[in-house]
Design goal:
By secondary structure, the chain is an alpha/beta fold. It is 50% helix and 16% strand. The protein has an eight-stranded mixed β-sheet with strand order 3-4-2-5-1-6-7-8, sandwiched between helices. α1 packs across α14. Bound molecules: adenosine-5'-triphosphate and magnesium ion (MG). The site of adenosine-5'-triphosphate has 19 residues, from α1, β7 and α12.
């Protein structure tokens, strides 16, 4: 059965696109069929991430200018770039990475935004969006559909949450907006949860990886003290978060400065399969398989 997972957040820059891309590619690498949807229609980034310029986008599908096969792009060959000699290759050949992109054209973004402001076209677009999910499930035999959304309470993000079985609310631990996150959880997620949707906090950029600066040989009692305080404070913040927001944490991913400063940021989990970030993505996959 297809599992549909939407990544959402209150604030921007919490790692939704990074995690959804790496998650989808890692699922495919493990032999599963993953369909990644870029539903960040206002500021799509996955074309840039995958360095792929699609002829047809989700926008075309919604306006009935393209059929499903034209908007689902098979990026599985990308996985071959990262195949190793330890037998993973044969496994990866079974998996599929399929991606549907949103248009990056300014005119297309305005057109979609304008159309959802008119009742008639808004309903028609919503119907097509529901059909997109149905067609993916029926035609592509997907194990997972992963949806990357826009931050905040926006029309296509809410629709994405509505078609998902599981919502991952990503939070950046270096700048939590508790008020906004609580609002999302209470106003939006609560009503979806009542209908059977599962929702979890996905904590990103947590402390612990870069501190103390042990690799640079700069560890002193002051840096050690700071490390202990930061980690202790963070544990308290996480416990408070879970209680306050009423959602469990599915996973906490540390802030990896080597990822943040990587100028060639692309499918880190596949490029560096032994990096702890790849291990965290694997952990997420194992958890998602069981829920
Ligand atoms: N665990 C991490 N450690 C270090 N850097 C990270 C981590 N996760 C994401 N980043 C970096 O944070 C930045 C923002 O990530 P990303 O674009 O995935 O966020 P987003 O939630 O999709 O943003 P937006 O809301 O604008 O779409 C990127 O530069 C990414 O490399
Ligand atoms: Mg993004």
């Amino acid at each position: 059965m297809t599992k549909c997972i939407a990544l959402h957040s209150y604030k921007g820059g919490t790692g939704k696109s990074t995690i959804s891309s790496n998650l989808s590619a890692s699922l495919a690498k493990k032999g599963l069929t993953a369909v990644l949807l870029d539903v960040d229609v206002y500021a799509p980034s996955l074309q840039d991430y995958f360095q792929w310029q699609p002829k047809k986008s989700i926008n075309d599908y919604l306006f009935e200018n393209a059929n499903i096969d034209e908007v689902i792009h098979d990026l599985s060959p990308v996985l071959d770039k990262f195949s190793s000699n330890d037998g993973e290759q044969s496994e990866s050949s079974k998996g599929k990475l399929l991606v549907a992109f949103s248009s990056t054209s300014k005119d297309e973004i305005y057109k979609l935004d304008g159309a959802v402001r008119q009742e008639g076209s808004k309903i028609q677009l919503l119907r097509k969006f529901l059909m997109l999910r149905e067609e993916i499930v029926s035609k592509y035999n997907a194990d997972f559909v992963i949806i990357d959304t826009s931050p905040g309470i926006r029309y296509w993000s809410i629709n994405s949450l509505a078609i998902a079985d599981t919502i991952l609310l990503s939070l950046k631990l270096d700048g939590i907006d508790l008020k906004g996150t609580r609002l999302l959880a209470r106003e939006i997620y609560d009503s979806l949860t009542k209908l059977g949707t599962k929702s979890y906090l996905l904590l990103n950029r947590a402390a612990g990886y870069c501190l103390p600066p042990n690799l640079a040989g700069e560890q002193t009692s002051a840096t050690q003290e700071m490390f202990n305080n930061t980690v202790d404070n963070q544990s308290a913040v996480i416990s408070k978060l879970n209680a306050d927001i009423g959602m469990d944490t599915i996973l906490s991913i540390p802030c990896y400065c080597d990822i943040q400063f990587d100028s060639n940021e692309f499918l880190t989990a596949l490029r560096y399969p032994n990096h702890p970030f790849a291990g965290k993505i694997d952990e997420l996959i194992e958890k998602l398989k069981t829920i």
